[in-house]
Amino acid sequence: MAEKRVVFRGWWFPALLLLPQLAITLIFFVWPAVQAVRTSFYQSDAFGFGERFVGLANYTALFASPGYLDSIWTTIVFSLGVTALTLTISLGFAAAVDRIIRGNSVYTAMLVWPYAIAPAVAGVLWWFMFDPSIGIIAYSIRALGISWNNLLDGNDAMILVVVAAAWRQISYNFIFFLAGLQSIPRSMHEAAAIDGAGPLKRFFTIVLPLLSPTLFFLIVIDIVYAFFETFGVIDATTRGGPGHATTTLVYKAFQDGFLSQNFGSSAAQSVVLTIIVVALTVIQFRFVERRVHY
């Protein structure tokens, strides 16, 4: 069968087809990014009546602020916790569903559902379950003799936001892990089993190396998710508290920009956050990808 190809007679029609997407990208992504970079070099009053060029003063003030440095460490702990918990649980679920012959589509649908829930809604759900007064999970924890109060204890609050943020992202990871597991030929498992390799050895010598491209991709995605897309979860559960114990970089940018009306500092924080995420992504592609087997 001959391949059919569409050839445009001019440049204007392809440009017209691309125009809506280009307009959305420019208006909602490029223009706000340019404005954020510009605003980071200015100091504005809270009412927006004037602004004054201050150069790098907003950036130097950030790194001289103990609160901002604490938020960097909080973000590191939070992102590592979310990424590790998400990858571990989603891979376990994918491995369990992959072994099920009948009804695996039902389990797959049930595990994918949480991804459709908005981050703020997910945060409210977990806030109710971990609430020290009425939460069923908080009650169960105290029944085991373990103290729990995420309203007063910063460590408890960090556990809450990590669990709430990871719960929603597990579904996304599960889809990719399940697809990766199902693409591994069964003959490889059978050959290893005949050679006497147990389930654990087969996992680390066959499954994990073949899943390394998927694992690398999900590590990058999960870190970006923890840095950028968890604002709704934190705002609905702890609001950065208690005592800024769960104030990540993205939430501190919101607090300084929308609550304190310090637009210059908030814009500078957004620029720094973007640079950090880009640098982490480049480092992962530069060093971690070497261990990936394609």
Describe it.
It contains 13 helices and 2 strands, in the order αββαααααααααααα. With 294 residues, the chain is mostly helical. Helix 2 (57-63) packs across helix 13 (263-287). The mean pLDDT is 89. It is found in: Cell inner membrane; Cell membrane. Pfam families: BPD_transp_1.
Map the helices and strands.
Layout lengths: L11 H28 L2 E3 L6 E3 L3 H7 L2 H34 L4 H9 L6 H12 L5 H8 L10 H29 L3 H9 L4 H12 L1 H17 L2 H7 L11 H11 L3 H25 L7
Antiparallel strand pairs: 1-2
Helix pairs in contact: 1-13, 2-13, 3-7, 3-10, 5-7, 5-11, 7-10, 10-13, 12-13
Short description:
This protein is mainly alpha-helical.
Which key features would you list for this structure?
71% helix; globular; 294 residues; single chain; two-stranded antiparallel ribbon
